Amino acid sequence: MGRCIRLVLLALVSACLSSRRSQSRTSFSSDNRSADLISAQLTGTKLDLQSRPMSRVVGPRSGDAIFASVERVNAELFTLTYGAIVRQLLTDLEEVDEVNKQLDQMGYNIGIRLIDEFLAKSNVTRCVDFRETAEVIAKVGFKMFLGVTASVTNWDADGTCCSIVLEDNPLVDFVELPDTCQGLYYCNILSGVIRGALEMVSMKTEVTWLRDMLRGDDIFELQVKLLKQVPEEYPYKDDE
Amino acid sequence: MIGVGKMKQYSNVLDKPLNKGKQEVSLSAFAFLFSELVQYNQTQVDNIAELERRLEDAGYAVGARVLELLCHREKGNRKETRLLGILSFVHSTVWKVLFGKVADSLEKGTEHEDEYMISEKELLVNRFISIPKDMGTFNCGAFVAGIVRGVLDSAGFPAVVTAHFVPMEGQQRPRTTILIKFAEEVLRREARLGG
Amino acid sequence: MAAAAIYSLFIINKSGGLIYYKEYGSAGRMDTNDSLRVASLWHSMHAISQQLSPTVGCSGIELLEADAFDLHCFQSLTGTKFFVVCEPGTLHMDALLKVIYELYTDYVLKNPFYEMEMPIRCELFDLNLSQAVQKDRVALLGR
């Protein structure tokens, strides 16, 4: 076993060192890889450090295409299950503010897991800017998971704050808020999902409800505000 | 409480006609939501039996509302009065609406008169879930057991409903059986009606 | 020619911790400490390679070719890394990594009993992974 590791280490070290030497091994690469794996944008850098993101080869997929290709369930199962969750929270926590917070937290927990499936299925590359990010959430994200399309509006001058707007919302079909639940943001799980998902790709955001159909507005409107974009660079601060 | 199944129309909102139940979401969306339901309930309990109970209770509310919705939509408000009728309704109609297919099988228990079993090779809710070894025979299908209990109870057929993993010969994965044990009064009524 | 063989699969979380290791080769399984060390080392090497690279916006090593093995690595935008060590010249490893990533998003991330960043102990993930690797093997050997 020890020898195996030494071989691996040796290979790794020599790979890093040789990255700066001009070894042209591109012919080897074309023998061994089928054409569709070779990106047209080969930079010509050394084989070991080829910037060949897989996503660039296939291209990002549309929300409709993904939704059509995944397994789907009746939205009613989803709506009713969500209703059961909110009901449980109201029973357990009683205070509407606490329920709002818990829903957001649950959404966050979902978002940090959901983001990988979003990336895997949508083939998006690193978004150039926040504008692109918001568009992709609205057009691809909402569609591939909830089957509905959202739109992005109300950009501020910086391009760091916008609104995501949706009419159709499978969380709330035929839900009616009784008077005892004034102040409840029934769909607060959604704000957490977006916040959690974006945090996993190094974007810290603040997501709040501007308009809520269950409170009498004519549309659902979420405000998404980019606070900080910090990709972690090696050496990481919390390395032991 | 929060009501589902009422068709309140806000005057300034799109006038939605009664949903025929054709709208869909991705299985993933449901799976993530269900996973979070389980995780939340895990934080609220001290042991597995309690977790099972909480999931069943969550399902109960769903079952009650499913019956409301379906009775209105599918059966034109006709009520089932016979045992086999309601069982068939659960096994076929309820299953189709919620899980996209009828249940794999409906069987009468051989040992007890009041027991019936609905079985599935794999419950939809369990599709992505692997139970850790230290949780023994725990089955997240307790949620589905709750749904069934909710439907039956609201239809006038009170029962105790539980979910169980049943190992199958030659199969790597066990199947799930929803065990329904009807209350005495149901059997008595059934006998009276000439069951 | 191409007798394709996967020797091992590693999955590392975004902090460099090993969360999954599967040995397919005949050399036998690396012991726990060694596998943890190798994962941690690769994590650092991968990060360093991004800084060494003369290309702007380099996303790190994707392919390492040595005499006795190839190493294919895929890093998601969330920082989780999936890499296979395989026989030199093995085809379709990138596609296999993508499949494994999707299996991870299904059978690991949707499991309520899985805690983020922790070692993966999900029976369904193991089952489906075996099927995917087996399918890959059959497809390649069938040529």
UniProtKB/TrEMBL annotation, chain A:
Pfam families on file: TRAPP
A single cellular component GO annotation: endoplasmic reticulum
Keyword field: Endoplasmic reticulum, ER-Golgi transport, Golgi apparatus, Signal, Transport
Main location: endoplasmic reticulum
Source taxon at top rank: Eukaryota
Secretion signal span: 1-18
Location(s) in or outside the cell: Endoplasmic reticulum; Golgi apparatus, cis-Golgi network
Protein name: Trafficking protein particle complex subunit 3-like
Family: Belongs to the TRAPP small subunits family. BET3 subfamily.
GO annotation, biological process: Golgi vesicle transport
UniProtKB/TrEMBL annotation, chain B:
UniProt protein name: Trafficking protein particle complex subunit
Native species: Punica granatum (Pomegranate)
Gene Ontology terms: cellular component: endoplasmic reticulum; TRAPPI protein complex; TRAPPII protein complex; TRAPPIII protein complex
Cellular location(s): Endoplasmic reticulum; Golgi apparatus, cis-Golgi network
Claim: Membrane is one of the keywords in the record: no
Family recorded in the similarity comment: Belongs to the TRAPP small subunits family. BET3 subfamily.
Quaternary state and interactors: Part of the multisubunit TRAPP (transport protein particle) complex.
Secretion signal span: none
GO biological process: endoplasmic reticulum to Golgi vesicle-mediated transport
Keyword Transport found: yes
Cited InterPro entries: NO_sig/Golgi_transp_ligand-bd, TRAPP-I_su5, TRAPP_component
Domain of life: Eukaryota
Residues forming coiled coils: none
UniProtKB/TrEMBL annotation, chain C:
Sorted UniProt keywords: Endoplasmic reticulum, ER-Golgi transport, Golgi apparatus, Transport
Cellular location(s): Endoplasmic reticulum; Golgi apparatus, cis-Golgi network; Golgi apparatus
GO biological process, one term: endoplasmic reticulum to Golgi vesicle-mediated transport
Name of the protein: Trafficking protein particle complex subunit
Organism: Punica granatum
Subunit relationships: Part of the multisubunit transport protein particle (TRAPP) complex.
InterPro entries, per database record: Longin-like_dom_sf, TRAPPC
Recorded family membership: Belongs to the TRAPP small subunits family. TRAPPC4 subfamily.
UniProt-listed Gene3D superfamilies: 3.30.450.70
PANTHER family recorded: TRAFFICKING PROTEIN PARTICLE COMPLEX SUBUNIT (PTHR23249), TRAFFICKING PROTEIN PARTICLE COMPLEX SUBUNIT 4 (PTHR23249:SF15)
Lineage: Eukaryota, Viridiplantae, Streptophyta, Embryophyta, Tracheophyta
GO cellular component, one term: Golgi apparatus
Top-level division of the source organism's lineage: Eukaryota
Pfam families: Sybindin (PF04099)
